[in-house]
UniProtKB/TrEMBL annotation:
A Pfam cross-reference name: SepF
Protein name: Cell division protein SepF
Compartment(s) where it occurs, according to its Swiss-Prot or TrEMBL record: Cytoplasm
Function summary: Cell division protein that is part of the divisome complex and is recruited early to the Z-ring. Probably stimulates Z-ring formation, perhaps through the cross-linking of FtsZ protofilaments. Its function overlaps with FtsA.
Coiled-coil segments on the chain, per record: none
Encoding gene, per UniProt annotation: sepF
Keywords from the named record: Cell cycle, Cell division, Cytoplasm, Septation
Length: 130
């Protein structure tokens, strides 16, 4: 009796015979190796990104259609200072709503640092007053 069947019987889950089928470990090992390699590659990229000097990007969008540029910088892990003073009040409000949602969705933060100027910081950036 296989180990899984013994545990199933012990737990009162009889009929676990289908768990004792032959298992092809080679396919699993290959998949795990690929997963491990892709995970290690991602970790190496993050390590390199963490050891590069931090960059703060200053952007002055003129229209709401500039939102993807701000989003791309933020998703790339860069801190963004956004000045919406050149936008109409309606578009500026819409842009701030967009970046607030972006910050929330990416676990970052948004702070107002002056009138119509906002700081959009990734989760790993600490913001202090003082």
């Amino acid at each position: 009796m296989g180990a899984v069947r013994k545990v199933a019987t012990y737990l009162g889950l009889g009929g676990a015979e289908h768990y004792d089928e032959a298992y092809d470990y080679e396919d699993e090992v290959e998949g795990e190796e690929e997963d491990w390699q892709s995970a290690s590659e991602r970790a190496a990229k993050r390590w390199h990104a963490m050891n590069e000097p931090s960059r703060i990007v200053m952007l002055t969008p003129m229209k709401y259609n500039d939102a993807p540029v701000i989003g791309q910088h933020f998703r790339d892990g860069q801190t963004v200072i956004m000045d919406v003073s050149g936008m109409s009040t309606a578009e500026a409000t819409r842009m701030v709503d967009f970046v607030a949602g972006l910050a929330y969705g990416c676990e970052g933060r948004i702070e107002r640092i002056a009138e119509k100027v906002f700081l959009l910081a990734p989760a790993e950036v600490e913001i202090t007053n003082g």
